[in-house]
Amino acid sequence: MGSAAPSRRPLTRRTTLSALLATGLGAALTACGEPSRSVGAGGTVTLRYFFWGDSGRADLINQCITAFEREHPKIKVKTSFAAFDSFWPKLSTAAAGGNPPDVMHIDYAWIRTLGEHGVLADLAAHTGPGKEIDAATLVPSLRTAGLIGDRRVGLPLSHNSVSLMYDAKAWAAAGARPPTAPMGWDTFMEQSLKVTRHSKRKQFGMDNPGQNYMGVETWMRQQGLQMWTEKGGLGFGHDDMRRYFTQVDGWRAEGALAGPDVVLESLPGYPITTGRVASYLEWDNQVGGRSEMRGSKLSLGLVPTDTSRSGIYAKPGMLMSAAAKSPYLSEAAQFINFMINDRQVAKILGTNIGMPPTTSQEGAAAVTDPAVRQVQTYEKQVAARLSPTPPPPADGGASLNVYLQRVAEKLFYGRISVDHAVELFFDQSKVVLA
């Protein structure tokens, strides 16, 4: 299925963009002067298109471009791709040289940052009835994805959802009830503790959801709160974080959850892939890769909740955006519309980048990969429980997430109290979100 969205653990690589912005990526993309490119021979336009991925994904996207150019003979598309870690320096270099790409992939974690820095074009004028982009076909829960206020700075190219990934054999061996039906957190932790005890703590029932933003966000959403507000602030307060940390630290002390030492011992892998835990929260599209790394099949279960809210939502695996300085916004919009709506694209890409984003593309791909079918089954199971895509992370949100990991690690090692952890987190939030 590929790596449509960077996983929850390697947040440190996302700081790459923070550093680039700090050293002038935003300025480079927005202050490189007016575009000087002209229409080519025969009245054709050439769009430069940057995306992240590997050669396999590049081959699929080039097939999509061939189909697009066949239907739009006046528009040519020239691609350039890189691995996720290398993508942002590549983008920065192109921008600094005064030649930013017309169309680019953007991770959801950075859509607000780049949108508010003036890097991304507002495509609202190119979206709607009679316009280049038909966004009415977006899966209902995705219709807010790519919006910053009333500005349309991106269109989702795929989507996926948080799941509770678990090793069904390990749970069964421990006599634990698997998360195949809705259950509350305390009930789930009772079952998780059975796994820990069965293995004599060689394998914990669950990774610690207090050590990453995914766990915090999911729990807050289950309480009716948001991780981020529309204006880019935190959508929860001190008392909310205190309740969460207290609850999670209690489960860790009992042994239902792994401690920070398990995470460190598993590096550069993951506790789930090194066999140190038997379940964890993860984007569903990662199940194939994680199963392969673990050496045994992982299943997709329902995320526990103590409320009527699941806490999960449709997250864009990646978005397509146009550069604010592109001289070819109409042509870029036509290409974006083709990529998100044309059924040929869905047939070619399959689920390499995640589930299709529009009703136009749903059901177009013939899928034989068991892991892909696993994700499709899960997505159908949770469709009615998904809420709309929430506001994207704030500018500085990625660095705050890294700080959350550090604070949680100190807490779960017993070096600081819950109250101290909460104060440290919110003090840092004032600095990075100012």
TrEMBL record:
- Report the Pfam families cross-referenced here: SBP_bac_8
Q: Which Gene3D superfamilies match?
A: Periplasmic binding protein-like II
Alphabetical list of PANTHER family matching this protein: ABC TRANSPORTER SUBSTRATE-BINDING PROTEIN, ARABINOSE-BINDING PROTEIN-RELATED
Spell out the protein name for this chain: ABC transporter substrate-binding protein
